[in-house]
């Protein structure tokens, strides 16, 4: 039933999510899962807008939910064109709440949303950032201008919230923390056993150390490659599997070749069958230099994989300061290799880690994540109300004389 057929109190809450694209990535998967959970509740009229490109593997998933996906492309139209197009879209869709996952165009989003009279704006920060002096000054200037118009700012972890407070001149207590969630059932259903998963992706019975993430500097893959050489030199029979694409793929492949690891290192590229790939792994590694809240790590935990991560923001929170996994310093290839050798050589340790991560993963369910956002949606609706009612144009005619139209509120 559409909103126009309901009373104001029972009308569906209209929420628009703003993302960059719907490519394979943690944010995109999160928004897709959120749309699925919210759509199933029947209380929401959802829509999604892509600020870069209406494309990506998750596009079809969202459309199948009956959720429309729009595009207002900064890449194609520039910031001025984006602002104009986004304002027009908001005037057409008329959301009660704009929930943005895009923080690099905040000023233009706010200009469009306020000109379109969107009642409530929520922004979620997914990652930490380390701006230089000029970038920090610009971001703080944007924040000063936009702060009065952003109703709620959320962060996905305590470290992201602290980072925002420092860089944006925000009080830490004004930033709400809502950890990202995943559909745990997809990763722990047990339908595909490890041996079968290995066979399906072509690895036989070989033990597999794996990671999932974009091939970018943030993920620290070069240190994983260095650690792989040390693990193989220690006599451990295993292969290393990297899932993801990015600008560093070619340099990483050259590094693998230079270290003589061609037979032990495989780049699978971007994959949609992450649950099956994870089932094929024996150990999961995240060698990142920084993180917000890594969804790939939560997925690996839900799959029951022993996890090794770097001791950086986001990862330490997910692994509960090391009680649910092994933490090593970032950029420390030797320490990472030692941890891998330890887990691959000690079945009892690996089993303890499997139990610990599966228990810890329960704290990051998509249902819990969505429930907390729902509380905020209800708070915003109570405070700011719904999108203003449309004005109807009624032309009053006097015989023999044409009258200009007048506006009346329907």
How would you summarize what this structure contains?
This protein is of the alpha/beta class and 410 residues long.
- Rounded mean pLDDT is 89
Q: Total helix count?
A: 16
Structural class: alpha/beta
Q: How would the global form be characterised? A: globular
Work out the oligomeric state of the chains in this entry. single chain
Ranges with pLDDT <50 over ≥5 residues?
A: 1-7, 392-410
For the record, the CATH class of the largest domain is: Alpha Beta
What does the main sheet amount to?
7 strands, parallel
Estimate the helix proportion, in percent.
40-55%
How much of the residues is beta strand, in percent?
Answer: 15-25%
What's the alpha carbon Rg, rounded to whole Å? 24 Å
CATH H-level homologous superfamily name of the largest domain: Glycogen Phosphorylase B
> CATH architecture of the largest domain, please?
3-Layer(aba) Sandwich
Count of all domains: 2
Determine the CATH topology of the largest domain.
Answer: Rossmann fold
Strand order of the main beta sheet, please?
3-2-1-4-5-6-7
> What is the rounded distance between the termini?
20 Å
State the total count of DSSP E strands: 15
């Amino acid at each position: 039933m559409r909103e126009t057929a309901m009373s104001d109190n029972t009308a569906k809450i209209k929420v628009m999510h703003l993302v960059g694209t719907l490519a394979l990535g943690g944010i995109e998967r999160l928004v897709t899962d959120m749309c699925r959970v919210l759509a199933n509740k029947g209380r929401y009229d959802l829509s999604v807008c892509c600020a870069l490109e209406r494309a990506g593997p998750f596009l079809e998933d969202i459309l199948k939910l009956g959720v429309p996906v729009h595009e207002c492309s900064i890449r194609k139209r520039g910031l001025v064109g984006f602002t104009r197009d986004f304002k027009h879209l908001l005037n057409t869709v008329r959301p009660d709440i704009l929930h943005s996952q895009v923080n690099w165009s905040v000023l233009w989003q706010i200009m469009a949303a306020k000109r379109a009279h969107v009642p409530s704006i929520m922004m979620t920060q997914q990652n930490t950032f380390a701006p230089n002096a000029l970038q920090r000054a610009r971001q703080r200037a944007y924040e000063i201008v936009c702060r009065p118009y952003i109703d709620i700012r959320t962060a996905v972890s305590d470290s992201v919230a602290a980072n925002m407070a420092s860089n944006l001149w925000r009080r830490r207590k004004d930033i709400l923390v809502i950890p990202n969630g995943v559909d745990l059932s997809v990763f722990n259903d047990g339908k595909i056993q490890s041996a079968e998963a290995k066979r399906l992706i072509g690895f036989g019975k070989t033990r597999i150390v794996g990671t999932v993430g974009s091939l970018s500097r943030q993920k620290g893959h070069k240190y994983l490659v260095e650690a792989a050489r040390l693990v193989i030199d220690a006599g451990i029979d295993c292969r290393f599997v990297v899932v993801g694409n990015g600008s560093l793929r070619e340099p990483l492949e050259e590094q693998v070749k230079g270290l003589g690891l061609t037979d032990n290192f495989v780049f699978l590229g971007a994959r949609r069958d992450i649950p099956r790939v994870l089932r094929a792994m024996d150990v999961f590694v995240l060698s990142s230099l920084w993180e917000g809240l890594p969804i790939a790590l939560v997925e690996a935990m839900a799959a029951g994989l022993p996890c090794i991560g770097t001791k950086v923001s986001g990862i330490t929170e997910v692994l509960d300061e090391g009680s649910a996994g092994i933490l090593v310093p970032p950029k420390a290839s030797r320490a990472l290799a030692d941890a891998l050798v330890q887990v691959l050589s000690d079945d009892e340790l690996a089993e303890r880690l499997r139990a610990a991560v599966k228990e810890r993963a329960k704290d990051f369910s998509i249902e819990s994540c969505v429930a907390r956002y729902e509380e905020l949606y209800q708070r915003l609706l109570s405070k700011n109300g719904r999108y203003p009612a449309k004005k109807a144009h009624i032309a009053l005619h006097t015989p023999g004389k044409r009258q200009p139209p007048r506006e009346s509120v329907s």
